[in-house]
Amino acid sequence: MEATIDSSTSSAQDSLEPDQFSYDDKIVRLFVTATILWALVATLVGLVVALLLVMPSLSGGLPYISFGRLRPLHTNAAIFAFAGNAIFAAVYYSTQRLCKARMWSDTLSQLHFWGWQLIIVAAAITLPLGITQSREYAELEWPIDILIAVVWLFIFGGNFLMTLIHRRERHMYVALWFYIATIVTVALLHVFNNLVIPAGWFKGYSVYAGVQDAFMQWWYGHNAVAFFLTTPFLGLMYYFLPKAAERPVFSYRLSIIHFWSLVFIYIWAGPHHLHYTALPEWACSLGMLFSLMLWMPSWGGMINGLLTLRGAWHKVAADPVLKFFVVGITFYGMSTFEGPMLSIKAVNALSHYTDWTIAHVHSGALGWNGFMAFGMIYWLLPVLYQTKLWSKKLMSLHFWTGTIGILLYIIPIYAAGLMQGLMWRAMDDTGHLVYPEFIETIQSVVPLWWLRVVGGTLYVSGVVMLAFNAFMTWTTRPAVYDIPVYTAPRLSKDYPDEPATESDLKDVPMLEAGKKLSVLGKMNWHRRWERLPVKFTVLTTAAVLVATLFELVPTFLIRSNVPTIATVTPYTPLELAGRHIYVSEGCYNCHSQMIRPIVAETKRYGEYSKPGEFIYDRPFQWGSRRIGPDLAREGGKQSSFWHWRHFENPTDVSPGSVMPSYQHLLDDDLKFNAIAPHVRAAAFLGAEYSEEELNNTEAVARKQSEVIAAEIVAQGGPAAMYDKQAIALIAYLQRVGTDLFKTPEPAAKTPADSPGDGEAAAADSEAGTTGNEATEDAQ
Amino acid sequence: MSEAPKTDHAYDGIEEYDNPLPGWWKWLFIATIVFAPFYWVYYHGGAEGRSVEDQFGIALAENTRLQFAEIGDLQPDTATVAKFMGKDSWVKVGKSVFRANCISCHGREGEGKVGPNLTDDSYKNVKTLGDIAKVINNGAGNGAMPKWSHRLHVNEVVMVSAFVASLRGTNAEGGRPPEGNKIAAWPEPPPEEEVEDEKEKS
Fold first, then answer.
1. Where are the domains of chain B?
2. How much of chain A is helix, strand and coil, in % rounded to 5?
3. Which GO terms describe its cellular component (chain A) (predicted)?
């Protein structure tokens, strides 16, 4: 369809002879199409999970479409499929124009496109199958992770950097800076967060455990938001907004300052996702302080966007593309104010684990990412298909439907978050919980969840309008696309530096330092950097790395961050298998395992969680949202038979529960012979296992399963269930959070010292801190 | 609004103004940076009572005082449970503990689900009021009833025992059939003054 024009007249040539070249818009058309398709999928799956919350029985007991497995599919589809393809469309369209150069290699462009779609399809298959790492937005298992690293860094990153190097525009525009930061940092985050020891093709065990794993994951998680959903979209904004508005960008200097401050400060902010958890307090304080500093750098982007429209507001009134951009940027401003606010510990104590976070991310995802992408697509459609947009009216309808949809989504969910947070902490004047039943606090937000379904439906229908409009536009495309040929000289090797800038204050009698500062403020030093893509990339990497190492090194090196607890021992093979089921089913999507040192919380769930309790947790399972109660002290809290009944039908034992039935765990056999690789991986990573457990794993696991099965029978449950998956999961659940209360091994003490039963019980009731100290003494 | 001069930059037709940083933007940015060391010194300067753990300890002590200051630490025995059965405000505390921890097995009204019915006259492991506290503390029935001694304050055990005792005879609807043996009626709670006397003595 597209007549190719040889862009490289001669690569060896080094003259100022003008080159002839054309842009590769075919790849942009592909990415735009993929963006629209994945937008449909991501929002539809979102609607499905929203429905599953209000009607848990909707899944019909089919494990593949339970909330715990579909929710990661929704987030991954929204972030990596929808937003990802939108980013690539923006990068491929704008980079070529900003560099006056075709993408360096059409083959790499194609490999990038198809490789990325392959990754997404692999995600869409593996996640419903329960193949997951359970780390939010990094759920995909290691073979797919390797593919991501190759496609992102070598294919996309390589193609992009080579295009920069072969550009015909002397200076790099701010959009390109943001693309550079995106590519470098996402690669860094992805690789270091996903280091695992494989236990088969579909399972890897994180090289980090517990507190450190949580730290790494939220270093990644927070910066996935920063460098996948923020910086590339700022790049998108910097190109498409002035294009669509036909107005100059508000301030070059603001671009520089907010770019570098954003890149440097964002990286520190991760620990604010872990306030009041077992993460060391100093790390949380760093996270909070840098989040506050992030407020203005983020708003720098908003200001530069909105003020670019000065003198063009009449255009906004007439052009839905600009309307999408204005609403998108406004939501960016709102959520980047809210982000720092939520990072304040006192606010976070209320908001964490509630729907507040969900509302916050959706104002960002639906408002900022969604609307910026839609604005870009509507601007691109007529350009790419060289025709008129099929219906401007439908585009306008999409804008209004989408806007109302967002508001109807986020307002009830904000209310739900606030309400549940307040109910959890409410205490009466005798010091007791006002809402001791967890179920009550969920039941009260269910009506608000229904409103979200309505808002979500509106948003999805907007995406459908986009898809239809795009399809109809495509049908009116010309038979052959016109491919304009451009002419521009190559860059000469020698470019004279600008003459040293003179201060405006040259003749003013004042300190020399002041004059130097005023010269610095003219940003000519930065102008020089903009001519040097490799140096710019190195500097960006350095900014990100330095900030990372400042937080990361102490977290890993200072031993006092994770005080050892002598009674904490590795999971047994059966418990490990149960934990694997817990991870696969995505239980962490609704249940946290992290009790914060807050009175209302310890009264509800028990002694708060200690860092030393998690040293064998790979990956950590602290969770981020409590749709069900916290499980950090679940061990021994219910009888094993209760768990059995609960998996069979949760509403039997807790009426009003929104948890679906896990009947398949009661029906399906546990593969005892598949447990060994898990134990070996854990042992390789430092967990102490006996020879028996390592070499005779299956028999050890079977023995424990028979004990649990017998317990269930003794408690009135069904007989002969020892080989069912639920048994392993129950074994794990009965273990969670119990090590802290165990009496230390008598080996460390003389028999005379070992406390009598009564004393032990008394010590138990005081629990926590005292138990912790006692065991440290015992070492 | 007056416009700063444009820079000479142009990229694919996109131009840039050379506007200075907005003053409020610059100063708020500086303020958030300056705030950091003060916060750090305040919370991480080593002063006692400011860390999350210290704050929790203070709040927990305050909460315990609020709940139990007037009664001290109780003994989970028949006499104590009988004493508190007669005090409605304390039975209410027991009810709150019950609703937080027990209803998943014993039902909202104590009618029994996985666990036995607490509203009839038959009991499996209980003969006296003190036995209720004992079962709660140590568990029963091969772990069907978990042990609660390290989860609940000893006073909470007494209060929830008193509440459970008070459920007897309410015969909640839709309950599980009676299990175990019929046992003798609870002793009458001691008259109020006596309780006060004892408290003063101790």
1. 6-44, 52-201
2. 65, 5, 30
3. plasma membrane
Task: Give the annotated binding-site residues of A for heme b.
Answer: 74, 360, 362
Fold annotation for A18-478:
Cytochrome C Oxidase; Chain A (1.20.210)
Q: Is A260 on the interface with B (CB under 8 A)?
A: no
This complex has an ipTM of 0.89
Quick one: how far is CA A95 from the chain centroid?
26
Note the pLDDT tens digit of each residue in A744-755. 866 544 444 444
Asked if the Cβ–Cβ distance from A637 to B146 is below 8 Å, we say: yes
Where do you find CATH 1.10.760.10 in chain A? 573-740
Q: Which candidate in B3, B7, B19 is best for mutational testing of the A interface (most A CBs within 10 A)?
A: B19
A171: nearest CB among B9, B55, B63: B9
B181 against A724, higher pLDDT = A724
Q: pLDDT tens across A585-627, in order?
A: 999 999 999 999 999 999 999 999 999 999 999 999 999 999 9
In whole angstroms, give the CA distance from residue B149 to residue B147.
6
**A339-343, A356-360, A424-428, B74-78: least confidently modelled range:** B74-78
CATH architecture, range A573-740: Orthogonal Bundle (1.10)
How confident is the model over A517-536, as a mean pLDDT? Answer: 87
- Residue A496, pLDDT score: 76
Q: What's the topology of domain B52-201?
A: Cytochrome Bc1 Complex; Chain D, domain 2 (1.10.760)
DSSP 8-state class, residue A669: B
Q: Do A253 and B143 touch (CB under 8 A)?
A: no
Q: Is the pLDDT of residue A234 over 90?
A: yes
The CATH 1.20.210.10 domain(s) of chain A lie at 18-478
Burial A713-740 (b: 16+ CB within 10 A, else e): bebebeeebbbbbbbbbbbbbbbbbbbb
